[in-house]
């Protein structure tokens, strides 16, 4: 009979497994000041001209965006949804620029070329594709939601497909329209915050620490939780620079995209303590 009784409690404290938290298996994170993002941009700007191959990545992203503009020119709301989705998938697209930044940091002789930036793709393997697939899923959710919302508003409010000005004017003139517009803004903001939280230093962590996608995203979440205000400032800088690019019909993305990518690497380096880093100052928390 005794053999049939299963023990449900530990015999000693050594059998008790520690509770898994965000700190488990992730490096310490330094607390940074609110002016740190501006410092990253300054350093990133210098790196951009040390490794001008990053401009090729900017050119590819800008060309893709211009293709979207051309295909959706007659549907401004759909254009807005697709273009804003760039902010969701941008971190995955910046892997090549991050690799250039890593190369510059190591001090290898000569400026890294475009070939160097693509060497990270096979090295990261499935982790990068899983991360890209997650961001792409968020992008599809956002664009699908916007397409559905546009259709409902056009048919339900105007009775026929309307222009951007007509639809916006109608929404702002009715309570239902204002509530609907607020709902879209809140939904978009929530999705953007989720994407930002999961990707703020994910790709640099994959490149530098060879972390899997889950561990790398955990580092991003930890960085955000330790530095919420500086990360809000960083997100505002990214949004402002992207908005500037939109005002130039995305031409400015040729420079802005790699610039942000280089700055992202410096943000990772400043926040995430390296394994061999002897500094265990009070500014770093485990």
Topology:
Blueprint: E1 29-30, H1 36-50, H2 54-71, H3 76-84, H4 86-93, H5 95-106, H6 114-117, H7 120-124, H8 126-158, H9 164-172, H10 175-199, H11 202-209, H12 213-226, H13 228-247, H14 253-271, E2 284-285
Antiparallel strand pairs: 1-2
Helix pairs in contact: 1-14, 2-14, 3-8, 4-8, 4-10, 5-11, 5-14, 8-9, 8-10, 11-12, 13-14
Short description:
By secondary structure, this protein is mostly helical. It has helices spanning 36-50, 54-71, 76-84, 86-93, 95-106, 114-117, 120-124, 126-158, 164-172, 175-199, 202-209, 213-226, 228-247, 253-271; strands at 29-30, 284-285.
Termini separation (Å)? 48 Å
Number of strands: 2
The percentage of residues in β strands lies in under 5%
Overall average residue pLDDT? 82
Percentage of helical residues? 55-70%
| Cα-based radius of gyration, to the nearest Å | 23 Å
Describe this structure in words.
- The chain is mostly helical.
- The chain has a domain of 198 residues.
- Helix content is 70%, strand content 1%.
- The chain contains 14 helices and 2 strands; from the N terminus they run E-H-H-H-H-H-H-H-H-H-H-H-H-H-H-E.
- A two-stranded antiparallel sheet has the order 1-2.
- The longest helix is centred in the middle third of the chain and has 33 residues.
- It is globular.
- The termini are far apart.
List keywords for this structure.
286 residues; mainly alpha; two-stranded antiparallel sheet; 14 helices; 70% helix; globular
């Amino acid at each position: 009979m005794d053999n049939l009784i299963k023990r449900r409690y530990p015999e000693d404290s050594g059998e008790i497994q520690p509770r898994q938290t965000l700190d488990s298996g992730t490096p310490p994170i330094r607390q940074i000041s609110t002016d740190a993002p501006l410092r990253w941009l300054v350093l990133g700007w210098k790196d951009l001209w040390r490794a001008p191959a990053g401009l090729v990545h900017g050119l590819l992203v800008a060309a893709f965006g211009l293709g979207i503009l051309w295909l959706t020119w007659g549907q401004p709301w759909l254009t807005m949804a697709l273009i804003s989705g760039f902010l969701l998938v941008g971190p995955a697209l910046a892997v090549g620029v991050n690799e250039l930044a890593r190369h510059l940091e190591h001090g290898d002789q000569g400026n890294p070329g475009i070939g160097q930036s693509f060497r990270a793709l096979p090295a990261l393997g499935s982790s990068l594709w899983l991360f890209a697939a997650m961001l792409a899923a968020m992008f599809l959710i956002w664009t699908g939601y916007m397409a559905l919302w546009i259709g409902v508003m056009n048919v339900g409010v105007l009775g026929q497909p309307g222009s951007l000005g007509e639809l916006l004017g109608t929404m702002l003139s009715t309570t239902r329209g204002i509530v609907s517009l607020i709902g879209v803004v809140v939904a978009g903001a929530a999705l953007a915050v989720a994407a930002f939280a999961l990707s703020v230093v994910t790709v640099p962590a994959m490149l530098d620490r060879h972390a899997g996608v889950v561990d790398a995203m955990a580092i991003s979440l930890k960085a955000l939780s330790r530095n919420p205000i500086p990360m809000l400032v960083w997100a505002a800088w990214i949004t402002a620079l992207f908005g500037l690019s939109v005002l130039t019909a995305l031409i400015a993305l040729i420079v802005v995209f790699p610039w942000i990518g280089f700055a992202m690497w410096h943000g990772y380096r400043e926040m995430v303590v390296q394994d061999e880093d002897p500094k265990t100052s009070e500014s770093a928390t485990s």
